[in-house]
Specification:
F-box-assoc_interact_dom; mainly beta; 4-stranded antiparallel β-sheet; 386 residues; Gal_Oxase/kelch_b-propeller; 8-stranded mixed β-sheet; Neuraminidase; F-box domain-containing protein
Amino acid sequence: MEPTPPSLGVRKRRKKTISDLLPIDLVMQIFKRLPVKTLARLICVSKLCASIIRSRDFMKVFLTNRHGRLFFTFKRYKDSILFTASLQTLNPCEASVAMTHPAFDVDAKNCSYLHGLICYASACASRVLVYNSSTRKLTTLPIFQPGTPVRNHFLGYDGIGGVYKVLCRTGPNPVFQIMTLGDGSSWKTVNVGQYSHFPLKKHICIDGVLYYEACADKNLKGTAFIMRFDVRSESFERVKMSGDNVKCSAMVTYEGKLAIISKVISADGSVVLWVLEDAVKHKWLKKVFVLPNSWTSLVQGQSTAAYWFHRFVDVNDAGEFVLAPSSVRIRHYVLFYDPKRNSMRKVAVNGIKVPIRYDSNRRFNRPDSCSLLHLFSSQVESPMFL
């Protein structure tokens, strides 16, 4: 009788996976240090890697302690241009454009930005789309009822559940619908209760709460107020504006709270900031900061024009106020004002290419006119839709 081969009768060993070698928590800590492009490749390696990266727990871990990027949107004549730039760690006075994105044929003023995701409506306002600036992937959300236009749309993030949600107002009446991204769910109607309102364009998401400006008048001519939407519980609350309403303002995060900052710099170099101290009691705290007299020496052109052609656009995680030119420049830059030290620094942004177009009147090519629509200084990468 021939001897039995050693391979026969021996149980086949199970191939070890990454979870057998390392705890899942440790794997997440390793994965969170990787860029989104690398995570996209790991998804193709194994089903286990894909399940870890696409999980809500990893989403929460990944978004913690990520280095922010500069996120520019410039408006051209017919479309919008998007740039993302990374701040240099060795040289804090320089930033390099990491990616130039395809032009968007949309009204970028109505776009919603969060963690590098851009939410906007189609040209006919019948569909809502989400673009991931890290993966350059565009996702079209399910359609509403036929003939129902999208009036407003906001992107929010629930940090506890680790999910993104899109809130939309559809139709001529204030009907709100919401959808959770990434779980295959569909649109569902949200009851606003006693807070019937019509949203405006200004909005921001802070710690799982979506704030946006609104009014009760259908023609958008009434007194403005702030709507507070809890992304997790999907509930609405109304917050009264401060008595001294700031015109030409923007919503920013200041010390973890909602703040309204005046974009315009006064002739004396002062800027006004209203901080929401208590949403229940509608309590706002007014802060006034004065820029150092030397700040105009950092900008290009005449110092007298600095007040007119620069505006505040954001407050970063370090508490610095972000000041930027109102139009793109060949040598573009961003200013950061530290209110605690009363100091200002200039960061040169390398790699922004000014578009060239043919001037039929003058018969030669010249730099295209591009105005700044948005600049966010603390945008992080998002693994959503990988």
